[in-house]
């Protein structure tokens, strides 16, 4: 299964076999990450694998990949874009994975800039789902161009608490991207909507490749006003 195809079958896995994955699989994973596309190559991200975590809504898995940055702008969406490719890589190989926004390293925050954790391992439940198994907003709620295959693909992106904070507006040969922030009290606890946006952009980029369209994204704050949303950027 290719990564693009995995978009339509992936699911968040929350039950795992405790057995560790073979070292050769982990080596293949590291090699794959090095070859993944970056949303902004100038943004530096690192990761490490640990075996135990703490925090709310935790999942017991044999491996946890902790993603870290340097505390600079753009890291969240770049982390979502880059490591969603890993999420799809796992799914394409029948390996389970799930994003964990409230899970931390039990030992220490090595960089002081940990962003999010991705649990993974051999699934103890179905590794995939059918298209009708996705619980998503009606696509007309997230775009003015529901027939666009790239937006249809982004529509299936996972997000924290299934917020689906994105809106894609097609106009003049480009796509304006907007973000909806969660409302209080959720907004006081959930700070990863930019990461969610990066995950959706990853799906969009894969669909552009499939459709033979170019993909280039830039953050931009001066988009036309859209009620209930704030500007995020432009896809060209």
Structure notes:
The chain has 236 residues and is of the alpha+beta class. The protein folds into two domains: 119 residues, 3-Layer(aba) Sandwich (NADH Oxidase), CATH 3.40.109.10; 101 residues, putative nitroreductase (tm1586), domain 2 (NADH Oxidase, 3-Layer(aba) Sandwich). 27% of the residues lie in helices and 22% in strands. The protein contains six helices and ten strands. The strands form three sheets. The chain has a four-stranded antiparallel β-sheet with strand order 1-3-6-4, with helices on one face. It is globular and about 50 Å long. The mean pLDDT is 94.
Question: Could you list some keywords that capture this structure?
Answer:
4-stranded antiparallel sheet, 10 strands, 236 residues, NADH Oxidase, 22% strand
**Strand runs, count:** 10
**Annotation field: number of helices:** 6
Query: What gap, in angstroms, lies between the N and C termini?
Result: 28 Å
- Runs in which pLDDT lies below 50 for 5 or more consecutive residues are none
Tally of distinct domains: 2
The backbone outline, from C-alpha atoms, is globular
Structural class: alpha+beta
Which CATH architecture of the largest domain would you pick? 3-Layer(aba) Sandwich
Give a quick account of the main beta sheet: strands, pairing sense, barrel closure.
Answer: 4 strands, antiparallel
- Radius of gyration based on Cα positions: 17 Å
SSE order, one letter for each helix or strand: HHEEEHEEEHEEHHEE
């Amino acid at each position: 299964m290719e990564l693009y195809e995995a978009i339509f079958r992936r699911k968040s896995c929350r039950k795992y076999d405790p057995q560790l994955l073979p070292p050769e699989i982990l080596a293949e994973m590291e090699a794959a990450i090095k070859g993944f596309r970056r949303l902004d190559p100038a943004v530096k991200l690192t990761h490490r694998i640990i075996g135990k975590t703490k925090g709310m809504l935790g999942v017991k898995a044999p491996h946890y990949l902790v993603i870290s940055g340097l505390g600079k702008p753009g890291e969240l969406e770049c982390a979502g874009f880059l490591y969603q490719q890993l999420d799809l890589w796992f799914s394409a190989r029948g390996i389970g994975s799930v994003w964990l926004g409230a899970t931390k390293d039990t030992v220490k925050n090595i960089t002081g800039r940990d962003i999010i954790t991705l649990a993974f391992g051999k699934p103890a439940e179905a590794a995939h789902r059918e298209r009708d198994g996705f619980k998503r907003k009606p696509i007309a709620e997230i775009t003015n161009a529901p027939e666009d295959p790239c937006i249809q693909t982004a529509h299936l992106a996972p997000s924290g608490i299934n917020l689906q904070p994105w809106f894609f507006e097609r106009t003049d040969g480009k796509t304006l991207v907007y973000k909806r922030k969660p409302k209080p009290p959720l907004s006081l606890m959930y700070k990863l909507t930019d990461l969610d946006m990066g995950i959706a952009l990853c799906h969009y980029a894969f669909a552009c490749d499939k459709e033979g369209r170019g993909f280039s994204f830039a953050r931009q704050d001066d988009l036309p006003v859209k009620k209930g949303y704030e500007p995020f950027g432009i896809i060209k």
